[in-house]
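Feature request disguised as a bug report, sorry. It would help if multi-protein outputs had a clear separator. Right now it looks like this:
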Amino acid sequence: MSKKKEKAFLIPGDKIERLIDSNEGCIASDRITVDGCKVGFMYREEPYQNGNPDSGWRFMAGDESDEYMENPENHSIYLVNTICNYDREIIPFLHSAPGTAYIRNENGELVLDEEWEVRED
């Protein structure tokens, strides 16, 4: 039986600053937290409350393949505040309603992704 490999996070836990007043969780890919990419795509779905406060936010670099995202070892649950430490540019968008998505444009700015639609699984 193989032991799960510890992730080498770009920002050590003791270096995470309190940037927002929230204890809600989110899902983020390792492309952000391990590889250090900026958030290139973020969307908010209806929060999944299973005893843990979920914000509904999902953060990706934007270049992850379906195959990459289907591997649960490539993403984890974090506090939204943690992801803000990796990319502070997401903070102004965090109060957006579920069903909203943002994508980084050719100028490197996060803009509303009007073509994105929530996937019903």
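(second protein starts here, but nothing in the output says so)
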Amino acid sequence: MIRKKAVLLLLFCIAIWQVNTQAQSAKGRSLPDLQQEFVNLGFGMFIHYGMPTFMDQDWSDPNAPLSLFKSPKFDADQWAKAAKSANMTYGCLTTKHHSGFPIWNTKTTDYNVMHTPFGRDVVKEYADAFRRHGLKVMLYYSILDTHHGIRPNQITPEHIKMIKDQLTELLTNYGEITALIIDGWDAPWSRISYDDVPFEDIYNLVKKLQPNCLLMDLNAAKYPSDALFYTDIKSYEQGAGQFISKEHNKLPALACLPLQQNWFWKTGFPTTPVKDVNELVNKFVIPYNNAYCNFILNVAPNSDGLIDDNALEALKKIGTIYKAPVKFAQIPAHDAPIISSNLAKHVKSNSSWGDDMNIMDLANDDNFGSAWVSNYTVKEPWYELDFGRAKGINMVVITEGRNAGAKYILQYFANGEWKKIPAEQKNTSGRVKIFRFDRVWAERLKLEITPGKEQVVIQEVGVYNERR
């Protein structure tokens, strides 16, 4: 009887442990821990491979015939070995580029790799090969999809459903995905906003499917480098002129560059010199690793499905030069990402006296290159947004042009009276000031500003209603 009770007690404890373990797994680990682990990966391989590979283009014809895709010698194992030879720790494959051709076994469209002469699931073979060689697996996915009409001013609920269904496939059928890099969102060439394809919806879907998967948006040019706007990791596409500040960066970051001139393979690649590997390692990879930044180098497989000999040789040479730091620096404390829609964009605004050429609406025009500038004679400047009707809000983000030492008091107008918002200011050392607070219903929002030593300059005021 005693033994039976002991067995039952043991089974009960095991059941409790399993429940707690499942709960922990469902919830995921802390974002700062995941960000630090990502930075600690140091160096990885970007792999641009898809329909453009067969067209000598970086953007393929959105209606390119499926018969083009053949790759008779395709070998993802070769890719993984090449990454290992360079002392890389992970890969990231372009699962679908801007022309809308998925290279996995998707049920969302017949225009995919399974209906080509190749007829194999590239994402699966890549993921299996990289894991087999002890490498982490990341995926790239484009929001912009010109084949299926997911482009500016044409996006429908059916398009958003397709995006969600495709991401669900990628995050359900291919094992643990360390990070998902999304491109084509809120970029000047795509013009698909975080409202057209709702960022917060996609972000929460990713975290529901894989709580430990980081979501990254390849768009750093628009947003200030002092906070994480619409991404878990701040990204810098150096080919587009986006360069991280090695001296001033305080956020988890990613920088990318292709080994050759372009992202996708070109017929001239086998006989064209690759970038100088000593410069890549000593000018970019190592200094960036010392600045909380992971570096990803693009290598483009050819139309046979193999990496060219000159690229293989370059990667081996990189492996003799690059050694990961023994210990990566701890990323400074930073605030959680801003992922919600900005309720302040283009609403009616008002302010105290401002400079004639820099009036109030320039602080909520969704353009960080413009600003409201308070007239230097005003001792108690203020700025106000009028939503027209009550809206739930629980976060305000102020991006300053300068304003060293400026202080802000937030007030909201509801039911005929102004009330102070008890909000603690975050990110006090940078230009971006983040205020998170319990939700209030505001018809208007007012910033009362105490200037510091400089004239008050505000580039953008963002207002959000985060899901918590």
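Even a blank line would do. Unrelated, but nice: The helical segments are 2-27, 31-40, 76-85, 122-132, 157-172, 199-209, 277-289, 309-321.
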